[in-house]
UniProtKB/TrEMBL annotation:
PROSITE patterns: ODR_DC_2_1. Pathway: Amino-acid biosynthesis; L-lysine biosynthesis via DAP pathway; L-lysine from DL-2,6-diaminopimelate: step 1/1. HAMAP family: LysA. It comes from Sphingobium terrigena. This is Diaminopimelate decarboxylase.
Length: 421
């Protein structure tokens, strides 16, 4: 459920007309709904209500906007970060360090020092060399780093290959069958406090069976590690629960169904459970608002050329991802159309032959379910400024990231002395 609705024939977000935002800020622009964020956090938390003190750490990579993070911080969420930059964003937004988990395969010594300085809750280690480096860094600071190993369970998540992370050929984690050996070595590293196990098998999962298979393996590993004398106190079950993009496809499992499975599989585990939801919290809470530049007749269907492009919303180009495209003020007619952006790439295509609202030059369209992996993946290809972002709360709204002027982008370059003349 989201809070983008039609009132008197025009789309509004909560109590704010989308057209009013477009007129004031220009397009393209990302628009986020506080009410939707709040509801999604509540639904996810309710799904885990029978667990004892779970840590819900929002996956910052899904949407790192400071206002979004501050909203989630006020709702009590922690953060899952994968870079020093994301760590600093989370801290700046008010997320306490003792609710922050640091994941990712390429943590540098500098990032490790930063996280240790702030006193984060846990590092999710992805390799034995990383464990050795972190131990050395922690010792140099007179600290012990709380860690878990991320386990690669060799489970196919059944999602897009580029966002599948739990198969043996993926770069993430240590192999499941090497876990006991790796934990034994980590226990001998004086700078580490080995406290947990972590797993994350992919993103946009639409079936609970792979998750249950991975969690079952984690449960067996927790028991084996404790039998081997390890003081395992946490289990990070990752994120990845999918959201509905294409209404023609089956609806992904609900958080309630996910929570029921988790509670059943983890019953009796002597650990604190941790979760890293991202898309399921912010996906439906955002839309990319764009204006039609012109409509050009194609060989089979018209090309609807909009002012948003692949640099603003990369998912369709990168993953062949599907986003519902709606007219902000529909005229009541539908037809097949190709929706494309102005970037000089054939890959700058949002949809081909899409049955959608008929639109004309100057009309507004909204790309739905764009709150996750939208603005955060944006770039400046074709010298296009980054997309602004707006947060709505009831009848109030604010620009929470302004559109930078093109002059600022140009000013970021420098011309060497030998070309100055």
């Amino acid at each position: 459920m989201d809070h983008f609705d039609y009132v008197d024939g025009a789309m509004q977000v909560e109590q704010v007309p989308m057209a009013a935002i477009a007129d004031a800020v220009g397009t393209p622009v990302y628009v986020y709904s506080t009410a939707t964020l709040t509801r999604h956090v509540s639904v996810f938390r309710d799904a885990l209500a029978t667990l004892d003190n779970p840590l819900i750490a929002f996956a910052v990579k899904a949407n790192p906007n400071a206002a979004v993070l501050a909203t989630l911080a006020k709702l009590g969420l922690g953060a899952d970060v994968v870079s020093g930059g994301e760590l600093l964003r989370a801290i700046a937004a008010g997320i306490p360090a003792d609710r922050i988990v640091f994941s990712g395969v390429g943590k540098t010594a500098e990032e490790m020092r930063l996280a240790l300085d702030h006193g984060i809750y846990q590092f999710n280690l992805e390799s034995e060399p990383e464990a050795e480096m972190l131990s050395e860094v922690a010792l140099s600071m007179g600290k012990r780093a709380p860690v878990a190993y991320r386990i690669n369970p060799d489970v196919d998540a059944g999602t897009h290959a580029k966002i599948s992370t739990g198969k043996s050929e993926n770069k993430f984690g240590i192999p499941y069958d090497r876990a006991l050996e790796s934990y034994a070595a980590a226990r001998d590293l004086p700078g580490l406090d080995v406290q947990g196990v972590a797993v994350h098998i992919g993103s946009q999962l639409t079936d609970l069976a792979p998750l249950e298979a991975a969690f079952t393996k984690v449960g067996a590993l927790v028991a084996a590690l404790r039998d081997a004398g390890h003081d395992i106190r946490t289990a990070d079950l990752g994120g990845g629960l999918g959201v509905p993009y294409d209404p023609a496809l089956p609806v992904p499992p609900s958080p309630a169904a996910y929570g029921e499975m988790v509670c059943r599989v983890t019953q009796g585990w002597p650990v604190r459970l941790m979760f890293e939801p991202g898309r399921v919290i912010v996906g439906n809470a955002g839309a990319l608002l764009s204006r039609v530049v012109r409509v050009k007749q194609g060989a089979q269907a018209p090309f609807v050329i909009v002012d948003a492009a692949m640099n603003d919303l990369l998912r369709p180009s990168l993953y062949d991802a599907w986003h519902d495209i709606r007219a902000v003020t529909p005229v009541g007619q539908r037809a097949a159309a190709n929706v494309v952006g102005p970037v000089c790439e054939t890959g700058d295509t949002f949809a081909m032959g899409r049955d959608m609202d008929v639109v004309a030059a100057g009309d507004l369209v909204a790309f739905m379910t764009a709150g996750a992996y939208g603005a955060t993946m944006a770039g400046t290809y074709n010298s296009r400024p980054l997309t602004p972002e707006v947060l709505v709360s009831g009848d109030k709204w604010a620009v929470v990231r302004a559109r930078p002027p093109i002059e600022a982008l140009i000013a970021g370059d420098s011309i060497p002395d030998w070309l100055a003349d």
